[in-house]
């Protein structure tokens, strides 16, 4: 009498528990229903102005306009846009039937609200010459400018200007919940390491087929390589080139090498008494063995470059410049000798009793910068220049620029941060002798005028003519010395199909991916 | 006991104030502009510039004097408020809960495993003597001399790549805990097995221990009645110290296994000059230190009540 009910109870409990387990297993992310991604960068906040890059890549966040692989603007949340004849009024027609992840329908008020909040925070929109952002009727948003500004479309496509539901913000404009419009919505937010997103069934565009996607910050390149090899992670970004040969032997992996518009560049203080003559800057550039650095340090043969922007940004790429062009200027020794520098008994350069000494600062966020910095230190030492390398935080570059303490800095500049490189070129060379991450104490009125003209130029032929002229000035004057361009190395497990790399690193295109059926 | 607990409670208050104040002074005296550091961590290296720094300076009122900032912190602390992170804007308590929870989980799992490895090996080493003792000594030295991330990578190669038993890195499931805990446990056991061995050897050679055998007790009876307690006191104290140092000192393991622990979080907070997070983390660790020490003292007192007078 007592035994049977007891066993029944146990059986009942076990059945309920297993039922729950099955339901949990089916409803939560597992390795069979999740595409897992590993990359180096951490995230700490839900705010698009701060860490929007990760939410844009994981397709939670979308912007009014998108960018294709060539950097051309394409429709996104705005299905169409028109620019007035005086180029001072931009009208965006919003897409119908777009739902936020909290179930609210997107309307003009929500878009205006998001853009006004983005404008009040740090980002490119804040610096745009915007007079007003207003709703026009039920389907359009109008942005009025104080002067023509061709960059506006690219600026709006930046992740910081993602469109969120009005309920996503608190009264202080802080983001409480990331209710975007993308094909995936936030499932788990565990800063600084883990973000899990779940597919959003009400998405307006191509709906995702993979139910979940997870992003895990893998700080160490070694760990990421091992994650790729073990099959624990489906897509690994930022692989160490040295690991590629061993990964190539793994059958379950497809490897991708894609150039991105990021360049390792030396930022020079052209107001420094040793560097104020272009011959000195040319000598420093000539003394760098770019090929050796590309092959031996970065292990990406062919990544050496003499130009700031990659060939894919053809408006800004000079076809006539090759590695030989630079040699025509002379040798580093001859150029420095023409400036009065002579080698002393220790073989170091000296002028008026003063040694040629520079401090080169770089930052540890990107480990390759430190090794490249020490390679450059050795190469400059060979021509008699003493270089002290200091590894610091990335903020030391704008700080050193502002307080004038910077001599030389080795940086990895992202020219695709705003999809139109003019955005970065303007902030780096636009006015007042350069910019925080660009030229320093270097004024060229012709270049400043050209860049400002480009802001208002919509004719592609004229645009190319002016941008080529600007690129030539920068190349000739060397306020910055390019060293190497970046190639993003990615591994994708063969169980995933439909992978596509975005050179502007805006999206992982998760909604285009599928699991290969066994 | 009561006096000891009162003494520890007083210690706790002084530690909280002392650690917070010291962290504040140290962070304020570090070179570099805080606004730039915070801006770099907030907006990332591609988006940090002087505009961002100016915005941060204005928003966080970084221009206010150090004394005013200190006063704000102290009054908040008296109300048990740790503030918000300067970088993420999220409450410090949330970040600490996430990081410290993971650190404690890893530290406790690592310590338990290390106890399971170190105690039997240490006892065996003391009991059997050479050649086992020398072999274990050599092995311990090799493991101790090896950087902990090398050990971690070796385990990953073996257990995650070769046999595919456990994930390489990450967190969230118990399988993720195994490799970092084993790595930690082995590096801890490399030292603690020697402490167990020394303590056991000292006890085994003591006159009272020899006497108990002479009076006719079996080896096991002697060990149980006269050995265990005597060996345990220094060993428990050592494990206590290991646990405390581990919570803050396992940065390498955390970054190798992408484990969101407090060591890693604290290092990043220092780079970012995120003072509320640094102060909060230092404070919680100070409190933990006192609590763990108290716990160790209580356990030692329970094992060896003779020490009561000295506490």
Structure description:
Chain A: InterPro entries: Peptide/Ni-bd, SBP_5, SBP_5_dom. Chain A: One of its GO terms (biological process) is peptide transport. The complex is a heterodimer of chains A (518) and B (311). By secondary structure, chain A is α+β, with helices and mostly antiparallel strands. Chain A folds into 2 domains: 11-237 and 494-515, 3-Layer(aba) Sandwich (D-Maltodextrin-Binding Protein, domain 2), CATH 3.40.190; 260-487, Dipeptide-binding Protein, Domain 3 (Dipeptide-binding Protein, domain 3, Roll). Chain A contains 16 helices and 21 strands. A 10-stranded mixed β-sheet of chain A has the order 8-9-10-1-11-19-12-18-16-17, sandwiched between helices. A 4-stranded antiparallel β-sheet of chain A has the order 4-5-7-6. A 3-stranded antiparallel β-sheet of chain A has the order 13-14-15, with no helix packed on it. In chain A, a hairpin with a 3-residue loop joins β8 (184-190) and β9. Residues 1-7 and 17-26 of chain A have low confidence and may be disordered. Chain B has 2 domains: 1-79, no CATH class; 93-272, MetI-like (MetI-like fold), CATH 1.10.3720. In chain B, 78% of the residues lie in helices and 0% in strands. Chain B is built from 13 helices and no strands. The radius of gyration of chain B is 24 Å and the shape is flat. The mean pLDDT of chain B is 82. The interface between A and B is large, with 55 and 48 residues.
């Amino acid at each position: 009498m007592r035994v049977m009910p007891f066993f029944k109870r146990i059986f009942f409990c076990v059945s309920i528990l297993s039922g729950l387990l099955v339901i949990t297993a089916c409803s939560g992310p597992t390795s069979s229903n999740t595409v897992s991604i590993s990359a180096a960068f951490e995230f700490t906040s839900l705010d698009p102005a701060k860490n929007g890059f990760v939410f844009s890549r994981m397709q939670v966040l979308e912007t009014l306009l998108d960018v294709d692989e060539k950097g051309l603007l394409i429709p996104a949340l705005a299905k169409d846009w028109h620019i007035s004849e005086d180029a001072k009024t931009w009208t965006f027609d919003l897409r119908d039937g777009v739902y936020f992840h909290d179930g609210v329908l997107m309307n003009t008020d929500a878009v205006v609200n998001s853009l006004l909040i983005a404008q009040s925070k740090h980002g490119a929109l804040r610096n745009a010459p915007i007079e007003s952002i207003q709703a026009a009727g039920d389907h359009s948003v109008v942005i009025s400018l104080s002067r023509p500004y061709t960059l506006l479309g690219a600026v709006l496509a930046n992740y910081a200007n993602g469109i969120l539901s009005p309920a996503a913000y608190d009264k202080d404009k802080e983001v409480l919940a990331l209710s975007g419009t993308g094909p995936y919505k936030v499932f788990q937010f565990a800063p600084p390491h883990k973000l899990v997103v779940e597919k959003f069934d009400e998405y307006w565009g191509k709906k995702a087929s993979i139910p979940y996607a997870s992003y895990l910050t893998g700080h160490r390149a070694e760990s990421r390589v091992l994650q790729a090899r073990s099959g624990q992670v489906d897509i690994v970004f930022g692989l160490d080139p040295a690991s590629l040969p061993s990964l190539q032997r793994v059958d379950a992996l497809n490897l991708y090498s894609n150039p991105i518009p990021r360049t390792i560049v030396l930022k020079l203080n052209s107001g420094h008494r040793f560097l104020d003559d272009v011959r000195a800057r040319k000598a420093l550039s000539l003394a760098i063995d770019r090929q050796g650095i590309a092959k031996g340090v970065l292990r990406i043969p062919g990544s050496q470059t003499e130009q700031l922007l990659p060939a894919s940004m053809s408006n800004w790429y000079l076809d006539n410049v090759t590695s030989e062009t630079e040699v025509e200027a002379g040798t580093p020794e001859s150029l420095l000798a023409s400036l009065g520098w002579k080698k002393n008994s220790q073989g170091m350069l000296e002028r008026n009793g003063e040694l040629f000494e520079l401090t080169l600062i770089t930052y540890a966020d990107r480990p390759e910068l430190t090794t490249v910095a020490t390679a450059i230190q050795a190469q400059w030492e060979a021509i008699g220049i003493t270089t002290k390398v200091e590894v610091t935080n990335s903020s030391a570059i704008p700080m050193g620029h502002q307080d004038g303490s910077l001599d030389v800095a080795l940086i990895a500049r992202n020219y695709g941060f705003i999809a139109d490189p003019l955005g970065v070129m303007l902030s780096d060379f636009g006015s007042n002798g350069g910019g925080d991450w660009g030229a320093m104490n270097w004024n060229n009125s012709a270049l400043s005028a050209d860049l400002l003209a480009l802001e208002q130029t919509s004719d592609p032929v004229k645009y190319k003519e002016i941008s080529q002229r600007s690129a030539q000035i920068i190349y000739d004057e060397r306020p910055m010395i390019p060293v190497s361009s970046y190639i993003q190395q990615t591994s994708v497990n063969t169980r995933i199909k439909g992978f596509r790399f975005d050179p502007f690193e805006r999206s992982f295109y998760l909604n285009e991916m599928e699991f290969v059926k066994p | 006991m009561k006096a000891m607990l009162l003494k520890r409670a007083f210690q706790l208050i002084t530690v909280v104030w002392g650690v917070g104040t010291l962290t504040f002074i140290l962070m304020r005296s570090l070179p570099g502009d805080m606004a730039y550091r915070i801006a770099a961590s907030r907006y990332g290296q591609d988006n940090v510039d002087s505009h961002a720094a100016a915005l941060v300076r204005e928003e966080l009122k970084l221009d206010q004097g150090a004394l005013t900032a200190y006063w704000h912190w102290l009054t908040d602390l008296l109300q048990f408020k740790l503030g918000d992170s300067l970088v993420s804007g999220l409450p410090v308590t949330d970040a600490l809960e996430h990081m410290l929870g993971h650190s404690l989980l890893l530290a406790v799992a690592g310590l338990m495993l290390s106890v399971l490895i170190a105690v039997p090996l240490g006892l065996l080493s003391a009991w059997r003597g050479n050649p086992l003792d020398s072999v274990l000594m050599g092995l311990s030295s090799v493991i101790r001399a090896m950087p902990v991330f090398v050990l971690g990578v070796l385990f990953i190669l073996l257990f995650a790549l070769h046999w595919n038993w456990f994930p390489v890195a990450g967190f969230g499931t118990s399988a993720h805990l195994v490799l970092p805990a084993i790595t930690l446990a082995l590096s801890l056991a490399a030292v603690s097995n020697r402490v167990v061995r020394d303590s056991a050897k000292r006890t085994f050679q003591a006159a009272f221990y020899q006497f108990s055998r002479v009076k006719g007790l079996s080896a096991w009876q002697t060990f149980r009645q006269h050995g265990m307690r005597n060996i345990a006191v220094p060993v428990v104290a050592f494990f206590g110290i290991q646990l405390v140092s581990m919570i803050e000192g396992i940065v390498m393991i955390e970054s190798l296994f992408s484990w969101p622990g407090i060591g890693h979080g604290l290092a990043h907070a220092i780079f970012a000059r995120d003072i509320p997070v640094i102060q909060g983390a230092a404070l919680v660790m100070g409190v933990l230190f006192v609590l763990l020490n108290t716990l160790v003292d209580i356990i030692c007192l329970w094992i060896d009540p003779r020490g009561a007078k000295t506490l």
